Amino acid sequence: MQPVDLTTLRAICASLQDTLPARLETVYQRDRHTLALALRTLKQQYWLTLSWHPQAARICFEPPPPRQPDTFTFSQQLHHQLSRLALVKIDLLHDWERVVDLQFAQRPQDPIQWHLYVEIMGKYSNVILVNTAGEIITAAHQVSAHQSRLRPILTGAPYVPPPPLTAAIPTVEDSFEHWQSQVSLIPGAVRQQLLKAYRGLSPALVQHLLEDAGINHTLHTHELTTQQWHHLFEHWQHWLECLQQQRFVPQLTPRGYRVTPALNQTVAHAVPLHELLATYYGQALAQQEIQQLQQQLRQTVQQHRQKVLAKVQEFQRRLAEATEGDRHRYVADLLMTYGYLWQPGMQSLTVTDFETNTPITIPLSPEKTAIQTAQDLYKQHQKLKRAQQHLTPLLAAAQAELAYLDQVQTTLDTAHTLDLLDEIRDELIQQGYLKCPTYYRPPQTPSPYLRYTTPSGYTVFVGRNNRQNDDLTLRVASPYDWWFHSQEIPGSHVILRLEAGDLPSEKDIQAAADIAAYHSQARESAQVPVVYTLRKHVQKPKGASPGMVIYDQATVVWGVPHHLSSSTVVKDRDRDILG
After folding, report:
1. What is the pLDDT of residues 15-26, one digit of tens each?
2. Which residue of 8, 156, 234, 530 is 20 to 30 Å from 304, comparing CA positions?
């Protein structure tokens, strides 16, 4: 994720000047790293985002926050001190430092009452409220003396700006010779030497300068030709002139964004700066959140799956032992029949097997008679029989739980949106696999089903998680619809929507089977067995986990997952499917 650098921060401050003065109406904290300030001007209301996120610290206008309770203390403190005051000035604390000073007063001409410092410094980013005496009133992230002896940030302590950087300050007045000697003073990769020699640069900015100059970023300073040095210096000067003249042209790039144009570049349609930043960081943070949540849910499911799998294996082992009970009873019958052959002190007794009519040797204890040994074997038989009766339902329950977790794992592999992952997380919380965090807000609006169209124009609905599978099969589908599912393989419930009296063609059935095969755990296989039946033949057992059903009167057909990309099946993701 590309961090906000000094060039971007200067562009932001320049663009914010047009919105001043603005009255602060309220403060809302979106999450533990992001604030939203509601600013009212004569023309309209803006929501200014202040973020101290370790990878996405920023300041920009973004869409209004969701209407949910704000329970954060920091935002309440800011609202108490700054509400109804006017934001009269926004500027950098130092031209070459990434600290923005938001100044508040009663009116534009009145003395400044509060400074809200927004420090955009990667993992050290912070938002700090300071009064006119220079004392810290509150901070988004307080730093104790034990955490940092250099710069503690505590309520009541004087505000001390971040330590200034020691690198040289870039100036347009620098000559080519001085600039070149500054960069090449210590041999090394030109990209790294630029970052070390001057302050105010970022890896993304240096990458853009090198790309604009046509220089490979892996080259070392001693490998650059004189022409390359001059070409790079020309783009360097162009960047400084853009900063000096506040000539910013925001635009997206394949790896991120940039706010200054390349030399001699003509941009037909520049993206508005705040729209660009809100879109870029919104998508990047959403993708990061999706990956983190997906990984968390996968680990949770995998941990529980390993425990359940161990239970299944233990139950199967004990049941295998329990099947020896019939053998114990048979041997006991032999001992009872031939007990008259026993003699004191015998360690074994050879008798004739009832079934094979061959001799069989039965081990004995010298301390017990044949009858006593037979009685012990009868007791073991009864014990193992009771164990078998007890273990059989436990094994069935464990196998059902294992099948459910496999189903959740399959839905996680195909869930690539935050809404779907939130629904899966809520399902796992409801099923007791996850603890409900204090900050958790359950999803309010269910995500839509996937929708396809068969060659004959029939609609096919696909559930994207276990709850959707239940709703789709048990509530949305009608008795005339056909139900498809991969046979004994975790996958989505698929409904072929039909009207009364309609009979789908073989192509429609094959299309629905291909969809069911594609949305299963075996989607990488060449062929997948798929069962289909009328919806009325599908039932949910009492107490079964979400998405788990039983069916009868089913037909098996082979689904081909890779057929889904053919033109015979049309996918429609954009429409809301209400059933």
Report:
1. 999 899 999 999
2. 530
384-404 pLDDT, tens digit each: 777 778 888 898 889 989 989
In angstroms and rounded to an integer, the radius of gyration of the C-alpha atoms of the chain is 36
CA pair distance 258, 276, nearest whole angstrom = 10
CB 454 within 8 A of CB 569: yes
Count of alpha carbons within 13 Å of 37, Cβ hemisphere only? 30
Angle, helices 418-430/273-322, rounded to nearest 10 degrees: 40
Q: Which helix (H) or strand (E) holds 125?
A: none
Beta-bridge partners for 538: 551
Angle at 303 between CA 302 and CA 308, to 5 degrees: 95
By three-state DSSP, how is residue 175 classified? coil
C-alpha span between 421 and 293 (Å, rounded) = 7
List, in sequence order, every residue forming a beta bridge with 253; answer none if it has no partner.
Answer: 256
* φ, ψ for residue 29, nearest 5 deg: -100, 115
**203-213 and 226-245 are packed helices; what angle lies between their axes, rounded to 10 degrees?**
120
Distance CA 452, CA 129 (A): 54
Pick out the chain residues at pLDDT < 50: 566-568, 573-579
Closest CA to 335 of 376, 300, 281: 376
Question: Cα torsion at 136, 142, 147, 151 (round to 10°)?
Answer: -30
Q: Residue 408, Cβ neighbours under 10 Å: how many?
A: 27
In eight-state DSSP terms, residue 159 is: P
Give pLDDT tens digits for 460-511: 999 988 988 999 999 999 988 999 999 989 999 999 999 887 888 999 999 9
Which pair of tokens denotes residue 121?
Answer: 């410094």
User: If 0-12 CB within 10 Å is exposed, 13-18 middle and 19+ buried, where does residue 226 land?
Assistant: exposed
Which has the closest alpha carbon to 445: 292, 578, 546, 579? 578
In terms of DSSP H, where are the helices of 108-225? 176-183, 190-197, 203-213
